[in-house]
Fold:
Amino acid sequence: MWVLRFKSEFIPETTFQLYANYHDQANISMQPGPCFDRMVGLCEMIAGEMQQAIPDLAIVQHLLSALFTMIESGRRRNQSDESDRQSVRNSTFRNFLAILEENFRRPEGVEFYAEKLFMSARNLNLICQQVLQKVCPRSLKPANLSKQKTC
Structure:
């Protein structure tokens, strides 16, 4: 783990950007891989420069700016992945509602609808739980689902 402490005046052009981007989310988890390895390399270069008898602070400023750029890129990538997952959940749930509407007169259970969506009943329940904050009832009817959503 690396900890970099510096005064906001060290890189004044990033002060407001740092507050805006990290005030509510100071902790960011990164997956191991090439991007993470490059960030570790930048931290090692910063540490190496700071251990010099007379460190060149201009180099440290540029390396630190590059590190912030890489962190922000990784953060945006992670947010994009999460929004993609949310979009898939919403799309699946909309498809589920369409199938439910077509078959509401039939006494079918969760397994029937999961099969129509090419997924397991467990995955359909997980999606419903994430969208409705409730699991699907055993007997699915639009009226039951409306009750679930208002609970």
